[in-house]
Amino acid sequence: MLLAHALVCDPGGKLPATLKEDLWRVICALELGNPGCSGGAGVPALFKAALAPPPSKVFLTVTRLYFSAEGGGERSVCFTFAFLFLILSMLVQVVREETLELGLEPGLASMTQNLEPLLEKQGWDWAFPVAKLTIRVGLAVVGSVLGAFLTFPGLRLAQTHRDALTMSEDRPVLQFLLHTSFLSPLFILWLWTKPIARDFLHQAPIGEKPFSLLSDSAFDSMRLWVLVVLCLLRLAVTRPHLQAYLCLAKARVEQLRREAGRIEAREIQRRVVRVYCYVTVVSLQYLTPLILTLNCTLLLKTLGGYSWGLGPVPTLSLAQTPASTVPVSPGEDEAQQTAARIAGAVGGLLTPLFLRGLLTYLIWWTAACQLLASLFGLYFHQQLAGS
């Protein structure tokens, strides 16, 4: 992904042509395109991979605002939720695939199957268990950091959702869309819970005998379409949420007027301007999780071997080409041979099964963090904020 980002994001043409050729050769060898491709087949995956860093950068920039604030409890809230999500992410990794089909077990098995001969070739047999443990701990840490990033967006979503429902009391259709959008993370969690999703559709209680509604490949494609529809639904109700936040200015002015004593006009202006200046941060808090989920969904479809259609797709197996058997042309120079070996090693580790499990975990975990943070936000704004 870093290579794709470096190749795409070069607006000034600062990269040399030879370096671009080497980067493109490595990207093609990583199965983002075809070996020897000229830029046709791998372009969609290339641009999707290049779009991965911006959401993380936005999360980091917004979270930095809370750590720079003095006298507030935002920093403590971030650390508390980070520790909570660290524990939860470790618990999620021990759930069996028969219950939660994230694909982590077959994905890690596919990667470690190619990692073991690579370490044995270098004489690092002792590093194989350490590498497996490092991957598990890395996933837990990523889940903890992502949960900390999604804490305040979830709290803000709960506040704007509550206010948007109050403003749309005479519009039942909009209220239905708001409720559906708010519960969309719960639908995502349900899609990967095997007993109540895949198994239910495979053995639907229709008539006397169980009836299969969808095949495995059709169910996988249906999940991708549901993710895209839910992202578009949340995008469609962006305006009511932002309008509900802007109405906080009026509520704060009315609260200020109810206070005893003389109120200066400058204080009223300061409270109103503070709300309007912060609306950009609120927009980022609302849209960034949506962009992250949609981007991971598109990457999952491309790199995970899925299809948008409901027809059968080729089944992925654990057997992959070992990294040591990647052919190297004798006519290439040393830099090209090194790039080909690196591409072969990385391509052997980042198998489609591993990428499928990793991206599914990120999508599912993002939805889980959003749901927990927004539910806590509802409880806070309804029970604790008024007390």
UniProtKB/TrEMBL annotation:
Record-annotated membrane-spanning stretches: 77-95, 133-152, 173-192, 224-248, 275-300, 358-380
GO cellular component: membrane
UniProt-annotated location(s): Membrane
Membrane topology, record value: Multi-pass membrane protein
Domain of life: Eukaryota
The entry's keywords: Glycoprotein, Membrane, Signal, Transmembrane, Transmembrane helix
PANTHER family xref list: RE42071P (PTHR13624), TRANSMEMBRANE PROTEIN 161A (PTHR13624:SF4)
Family the UniProt entry places it in: Belongs to the TMEM161 family.
The name this protein goes by in its record: Transmembrane protein 161A
Organism: Marmota marmota marmota (Alpine marmot)
Classification of source organism: Eukaryota, Metazoa, Chordata, Craniata, Vertebrata
Gene coding for it: TMEM161A
